[in-house]
């Protein structure tokens, strides 16, 4: 069993929510996007940091960027949990991504969303309204959310996302390295997906996998949100993606 893991993902696939569920396990600690450009997103509470003031250095992006590999290994040595991990997105730090794929010290977990239209819509709404957390997004009205989709941009978005996952999975498979795949559509409806991830990491299941109701941020239909819905419908029909319209 490896005592470190990486959670690969992209924005708007439910990674923050999934991490909050992972962190229910008493033997696991998963940090959020510690290599985000604007901030180091740790999962430690303010109270825990008060008890460990030496850990405050990990909040400093400049200290992190001076030696990202050192930062990562020191971060993942802090705390009493058996297994520790972190979340990383494309282009946040290519050297770190390469390191965690090649070093042999890390287990690898992927989180993705089958319906890329929904993740694209969620990301566009967040960008248009600077609403990157549930507190801000839940305050948005339908008028705030509505936009006209650029299908060419959506095409490019799909290629970027698919290329990111495929390149890493191919690299791990070529090295004979196992990985675990978590899909948004599965874990929001079946908390046993969480226990399957724990099992992959070598941890026992936990009992409280059914007591949280997932609250989707953008509950409106695609037709309600997309101004040029008929154009999007034609695009999806031409590419066999009509199921995404109802997701």
Class inferred from helices and paired strands: alpha/beta
Strand proportion: 5-15%
Order of helices and strands: EHEHHHEHEHHHHEHHHH
- Main pleated-sheet profile: 5 strands, parallel
Oligomer designation: single chain
| Mean pLDDT over the residues | 93
Low-confidence stretches: none
- How much helix is in the residues? 40-55%
Count of individual helical segments: 13
Find the count of extended strands (DSSP E, 2+ residues). 5
Q: Rounded to an integer, what's the Rg over CA atoms?
A: 19 Å
- Overall geometry comes to globular
Description:
- The protein is 45% helix and 11% strand.
- The chain has 13 helices and 5 strands.
- Strands 2-3-1-4-5 form a 5-stranded parallel beta sheet, sandwiched between helices.
Structure, briefly:
The protein is an alpha/beta fold and 247 residues long. It is 45% helix and 11% strand.
Which structural traits does this protein have?
five-stranded parallel beta sheet; 5 strands; alpha/beta; 11% strand; 13 helices
Secondary structure elements and pairings:
Elements: E1 4-8, H1 15-22, E2 28-33, H2 46-51, H3 61-66, H4 68-75, E3 83-88, H5 94-102, E4 106-112, H6 116-129, H7 134-137, H8 142-145, H9 151-174, E5 180-183, H10 184-187, H11 192-200, H12 222-225, H13 229-238
Parallel strand pairs: 1-3, 1-4, 2-3, 4-5
């Amino acid at each position: 069993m490896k005592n470190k893991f990486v959670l690969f993902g992209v924005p708007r696939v439910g990674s923050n929510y999934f991490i909050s569920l992972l962190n229910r396990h008493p033997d696991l600690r998963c940090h959020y996007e510690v290599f985000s450009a604007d901030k180091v997103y740790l999962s430690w509470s303010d109270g825990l940091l008060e008890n460990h003031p030496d850990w405050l250095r990990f909040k400093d992006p400049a200290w992190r960027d001076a030696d990202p590999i050192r930062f990562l290994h020191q971060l993942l040595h802090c705390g009493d949990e058996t297994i520790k991990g972190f979340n990383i997105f494309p282009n946040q730090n290519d050297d770190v991504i390469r390191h965690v794929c090649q070093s042999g010290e890390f287990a690898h977990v992927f989180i993705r969303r089958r319906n890329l239209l929904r993740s694209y819509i969620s990301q566009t709404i967040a960008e248009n309204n600077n609403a990157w957390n549930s507190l801000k997004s839940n305050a948005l009205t339908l008028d705030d959310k509505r936009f006209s989709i650029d299908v060419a941009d959506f095409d490019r978005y799909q290629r970027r996302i698919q290329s990111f996952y495929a390149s890493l999975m191919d690299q791990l498979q070529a090295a004979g390295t196992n990985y675990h795949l978590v899909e948004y559509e599965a874990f929001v409806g079946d908390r046993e997906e969480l226990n399957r991830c724990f099992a992959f990491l070598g941890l026992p299941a936990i009992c409280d996998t059914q007591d949280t109701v997932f609250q989707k941020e953008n509950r409106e239909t695609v037709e309600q949100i997309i101004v040029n819905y008929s154009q999007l419908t034609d695009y999806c029909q031409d590419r066999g993606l009509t199921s995404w319209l109802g997701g």
